[in-house]
UniProtKB/TrEMBL annotation, chain A:
GTP binds at D16, H17, G18, K19, S20, T21, N128, K129, I130, D131. Belongs to the GTP-binding elongation factor family. LepA subfamily. It comes from Halanaerobium kushneri. Required for accurate and efficient protein synthesis under certain stress conditions. May act as a fidelity factor of the translation reaction, by catalyzing a one-codon backward translocation of tRNAs on improperly translocated ribosomes. Back-translocation proceeds from a post-translocation (POST) complex to a pre-translocation (PRE) complex, thus giving elongation factor G a second chance to translocate the tRNAs correctly. Binds to ribosomes in a GTP-dependent manner. Its main location: membrane. This is Elongation factor 4.
UniProtKB/TrEMBL annotation, chain B:
Keywords: 4Fe-4S, Chaperone, Cytoplasm, Heme, Iron, Iron-sulfur, Metal-binding, S-adenosyl-L-methionine. It comes from Halanaerobium kushneri. Probably acts as a heme chaperone, transferring heme to an unknown acceptor. Binds one molecule of heme per monomer, possibly covalently. Binds 1 [4Fe-4S] cluster. The cluster is coordinated with 3 cysteines and an exchangeable S-adenosyl-L-methionine. PANTHER family: COPROPORPHYRINIGEN III OXIDASE (PTHR13932), RADICAL S-ADENOSYL METHIONINE DOMAIN-CONTAINING PROTEIN 1, MITOCHONDRIAL (PTHR13932:SF5). NCBIfam families: hemN_rel (TIGR00539). Gene3D superfamilies: Aldolase class I. This is Heme chaperone HemW.
Amino acid sequence: MQTEKIRNFCIIAHIDHGKSTLADRMLEYTGTITDRKMQEQVLDKMDLERERGITIKAQAVTIEHQGFELNLIDTPGHVDFAYEVSRSLAACEGALLVIDAAQGVEAQTMANIYLALEHDLEIIPVINKIDLPSANPQRVKEQLLDIGIDPDEAILASAKEGTNIDQILEAIIERVPAPHNGENKALRALVFDTLYDSYQGVIAYVRVMEGSVKKGDKILLMSNQKSYEVDEVGFFSPAMQKKDELSSGEVGYIISGIKDVRNCRVGDTITLKNNPAKKALPGYQKVQPMVFSGLYPTDNADYEVLKEALEKLQLNDASFTFEPETSEALGFGFRCGFLGLLHMEVIQERLEREYDLDLVITAPSVEYQIIKKNGEQLRIENPAAFPEQSEIDKIKEPFVTAEIHLPEEYVGQAMELCQDNRGDFKDMQYIDQDRVTLKYEMPLSEIITDFFNQLKSKTRGYATLDYELEGYKESKLVKLDILVNKEVVDALSTIVHDENSYQQGNALVRRLKEVIPRHMFKVPIQAAVGGKIIARVNIPAMRKNVLQKCYGGDVSRKRKLLEKQKEGKKRMKQVGSVEIPQEAFMTVLERDENA
Amino acid sequence: MPDLSFKQANALYIHFPFCSSKCPYCDFYSVKYSKKRVDLYWFALFMELEELSQKVDNNLLQTIYFGGGTPSLVPPFYIKEMIKLIRKRFRVTPTAEITAEVNPASINEEKIVALKRAGINRLSVGIQSFNDHHLSFLGRESSGEKNKKILNLVNNYFNNYSADLIFALPNQTLNELKKDLETLLSFKPPHISLYNLEIHENTPFYKRYNRGELKLPAEELDAEMYEFALEQLTAADYQHYEISNFAQRAYRARHNYIYWLFEPYLALGPGAAAFDGSCRSENIADLNHYLKYYNPEKLSFKEIIENNQLLDSVKKFNPNPEIKIRNLNCLSKKEQMAEYSFLALRTSAGIFYHQFYRKFDLEFKLVYKDEIKELKSSKLIKEGNERIYLTEKGKELANEVFLKFLLD
């Protein structure tokens, strides 16, 4: 296809403004999908994505319309996947900016605009959901004017009812620039996502920036200099369709027998081995996990199953890491690294659903840099592995710049929350009359400790959060140990700031009292720092647990009830003589509202 | 269809699945009372009885139990006819215990007398409380005064009866339970069943409980109430012979005891379950389904009786083979051992090793060696002369004990 006939674009939107519905409607309108029975929102493929209403993996689809090839790249919608988003945008020349006609411009809309401008994308504003009784497109147009976008360029649409889809397609053709024509140059193809298929190996989603690639070519991945022979190239419609060649400006896939996604990472540049490009495309980063937690099978016998499941998940996800770890309390498991909390939750849910595993998950942690008094330097992401307090000279922890977009009325509460979480105020900017962006420098460990949930609840769901790693800084940190029935439970240890240790220790033992069931004996729960007990509560001994009525027809039902109770106990982790339920290991990260 | 095989069954349970209104805590099967449907149902019951009598031979019934639902809604002469037919089809010992559950809201002196004449020799009275506030919370249509009046009447006509009391109700104080117990004990009922309020699935209370609208008393108070009740009842000379049951000497519930001994029993009516020692057969809890299967003629019960046509009418029964009305569930040996153990442990006698051996051909002490040791050391059970039984602490934490007897 000639580059003049190609348009590459993405859709960006605040959550729930109708991004996926619009994508579906465009596919239907252009006949890309004819199957009436198609599942809602074709582009979000995983159940999890559909349930949560978010896109986790990028997707691509080629739409043919009036002799043009329109490539839609759907981007993930969460801060954890910011890097993947940036690579998807780098593959485009234009963006549809979808705004809910009733909700108007939201904080995330602004973040999206900045992102699109950063990648020099032509922005086409789409005011969606004009079918809603509460729709107020005029107000949205005024808001657009306020933020420097020409309101006359906005298209009024209803993705749900299919109104004005034709106008949107027309605007894409007319306003999004054609890709730069680099057909005579050496191949440079940007990998913006990968997928692992057990038969074909890694399927690289690419945007060819320059040159072309076809079956039989020897390709070279520029970051690691590995080379492979191309088995197949093609495009998505949305199913994979073979093609002879992918050339400059086009979006599609390359299959070349790569067996490990870690050898073909998002952001890498593919070139030809025999005619390599001089320079890789800009912006490649090897993404590093930022959040770590221990995953343990509740039943130690499931260790091998868990290992296999983790290996399988990693095939598809180069940003997820794991290595074996042992806990005194939990036995054998794995320390896993994730991009962020959502990424962590997604992986955990997939393990439990797709592999039917019962897991104990320890509270997430960051990677600390420790300098011991003897000069030894350590990098530790498991609080249980911390050296003795007396051996430590300095501890450094990762800090991020957090950007919070929110309505002005909640600024007070948000600032208070940031300060409570060791945030250092950097900046505050008004986006418009009543929208504000707050900038704080904060320890990452605070962000992953229930911060976002609390931010949401304090701003009635209006705030959005983005963060970017700044670097490591020294902090006065201590390890907070938890003793259950006088024994330290290593998996419950956390790293906290010295000043907050008393308060957090207190809050934590009280929360544990709520989730650890009563036993036949009194169970003391204690918090300690450096061997000194700083908080204590007792779980009183169980007093009464008896099924009262038990007569003829009921006996089997009662037995089943007892069996269920027994199953429940099995899912708990036996630590010494105390049974600790899974959720106890996660309560470590919750914060009390008033703490 | 596979079916139960009875070598010996000494108990018969008859379910009456009608209530004038449904109590929000109750998970027994019942539908709204209607005179027409009761007539149809009664014919169908006779048919099931007829069907049952053909499958079982040479049984000697020692107990018959009319449970519900609300059996006191049935005209007593219906019950009389039922007992008559049972006596025709089965051998019934002269000293058989024949119980009917009655609800104070649907009974009066005339009915009490009529039930006695019908052949009932034991009543189980659903008192639940004497406190009007708690009664109305439980959805009971009776009042404290009415409950007292009915107990007086029952006392006048029946030597053997039981009264149910529920405690650990939301916001109930220890003092309120004390009053309830005092009132009840003033009648000196021969038998008392004492239950704390349990929240069962598929009940209105369950929904309210999950929504957080219904708060049960704290575990401490619940235990305190139970211990208090135990003291009072023991002081009044009641034997605590089963976790929830108390009796004056010689007035234990013989029918229920058969359940706790894991002995076979027969059952009639939707939702009722029969047991032959290793399999349980449960009639599907659906009245319409049950009526479709037996398909009784739409006749007036009274006329049939007056014209002496009951047997002819019952013999016409021709069940619809297309319809499945019961589920058979055979227990594995491990399930049997678990059920046997937790049922027997409910009684003050506990588990006798030789009885276990006779049933399962296995040494109880070997099968549950570790469990016995552990439970003894945590003082939940005691070992006696070739038996184990629950300690006082064990009675309060009985589920923790029972769990140990489930086998993987």
